[in-house]
Amino acid sequence: MNAPRLHAVILAGGSGTRFWPASRGHRPKQFLPLAGGQRTLLQATVERLRGLVPVDRLWIVTNPQQAGGVLAAAPGFPPEQVIVEPHARDTAPCVALAAARIEARDPGAVHVVLPADHRIEPAAAFQRLLERGAELAADGRTLVTFGIQPARPATGFGYIELGAQLDGGQPAAYRVARFREKPDVATARAFVESGRFLWNSGIFVWTAAALLAAMRAGHRDLLAAAERMAAACRAGDDQALAAAFAAAPKTSIDYAVMERAPQVAVVRADLRWDDLGSFVTLGAEFAPDAAGNVQVAGAGARLLLEDARGCVAYAEGRRVVALFGVHDLVVVAVDDAVLVCPKDRAEDLKALVQRLREQGLAEYL
Amino acid sequence: MNAPRLHAVILAGGSGTRFWPASRGHRPKQFLPLAGGQRTLLQATVERLRGLVPVDRLWIVTNPQQAGGVLAAAPGFPPEQVIVEPHARDTAPCVALAAARIEARDPGAVHVVLPADHRIEPAAAFQRLLERGAELAADGRTLVTFGIQPARPATGFGYIELGAQLDGGQPAAYRVARFREKPDVATARAFVESGRFLWNSGIFVWTAAALLAAMRAGHRDLLAAAERMAAACRAGDDQALAAAFAAAPKTSIDYAVMERAPQVAVVRADLRWDDLGSFVTLGAEFAPDAAGNVQVAGAGARLLLEDARGCVAYAEGRRVVALFGVHDLVVVAVDDAVLVCPKDRAEDLKALVQRLREQGLAEYL
Fold it and tell me: Measured in Å, how far apart are chain B's first and last C-alpha atoms?
């Protein structure tokens, strides 16, 4: 089979409090310089596709709050390929909207859907995986996902249980036996020991037709909205498109599509993958110094750690941030906000965010 | 005796690292909002003299780096009464320069010399003290100092040993038996228990003639420079004044004048006095909250302490500073710098400042 015309859809919406105050409503994780060498995760995601997907087949889905930031972060990117979701509707309506836009431009095209805020290396192995996924999805029926070889019994990820191997191709691909939500630690250990489970990467490849067929088998309200979006895109009717999107149910692609689809394949991904869950886990990407400190400094920022150990220090903007004689703290400093907390509280920032709201400080979220 | 015409000289030069990064070379402690209600210590010092010393008899001595900040902090203050010391020369040449300027304008005037960066309350008691000092200094021979009733056996202050009481006037005044440098803790305890020692406040009242006479008895090089400054001021010769200042020895008023002067009186000061030695001692001025946290927020700054105890949090500029689940830390955040350190290290910032220099970060000092 010849390599299909591959499009890519980068999901760059969303928000999150786990990197507060570096991340904000208008500036979520993908805009942070967490990709090494001052690059943002979004920039690195675009670069990772270079050579495989030309820019005229690259799409970025975002929300109205962040559209300006997307264009600023990806200079030269065609503005008409930035898809702005009119409302927050979780991932399923987003991928339906993107599929409708791509199908109207390039009927029958295969497209990959991937988050903007993961770190994945090396790029060559990643591109080889996507090519393999695109070959499998080119039948117009198969939904393809990617499973990461588990490095530990993580409880923060969903898992994919492998079924029968599909063919002799490489990287190896399997039918999906089941999707499993985030497990408890005992279950996670059993998953990893069995050798039959992979982490769910949240990266997919399919055609618009395969996606609609899966919705038909699963979520009818979503299907109706997706079909209206497809018709609106064919007609070039932006108003109808917005109305169809607004009518879509708020649901996730995992729940509404993947877990109910009749024909799902998973490609085994053997590469470095990190969804960068919090400041504390940055040590996996930014090698700690001899004292166990992880230091991330954006352009212009300087960190000075003196007699400090086991800390995570993150700074942006023209400033010096000095940690003196402290240990196991997370210290984050950006232009208008500073956070100081112990590492073992950094994954529990929800209480703090709630207090910010109560104190009338929501402008800092 | 009628009340003499009283001038006041506010010493607003100097620098210091104990409030880094809030204090800097161009912005020492007196410019920080540590006087309560967003006021700087310098503003509070000017206000404390209101009603006793009219603005046309008020002088501020500072250095070239800080002159702009002085005028900005004291709007409406006559620029010709800002005395800019051409070089850093410790306090003795400064007070000689101020005395020469005042004597040229108002021969025979009594003047008070006081630091810009102390907190003293209440103002009415302070003014009564200065009036008492001015009466004693009006003889043109007596150097008057003020001694603070010790609240504890502090080792960070100099002490004044009381001699015979001078007269029946109130507040009580004494001959000075001896000046004692910062004692060790056992000596400090003995001082306080004896009832014959007061803290040296660093506040003085005298005439120019009395100051010159004391130099004559003590430090001849300083006397020569002071006499040249006086002559230059009488002649209105700024160039000669600068040359005379440059020729003055670098020495302190305590060492070069007070400890050697033949006729020194001390007025017992029974008021709240604090020289604000470090962030950690701010609790004496800014009442801690129920969890023992001291919070100082400049205009526009917001502090959010959630599950924090025993901390000192200081912020300036439009920003939120969140302390979450930490204890006994000092956290300081200003526009271009952040410090995080344990309270028990906050008085030892010299090592950190040294590292800032070594790392090429002296611009942040």
Answer: 49
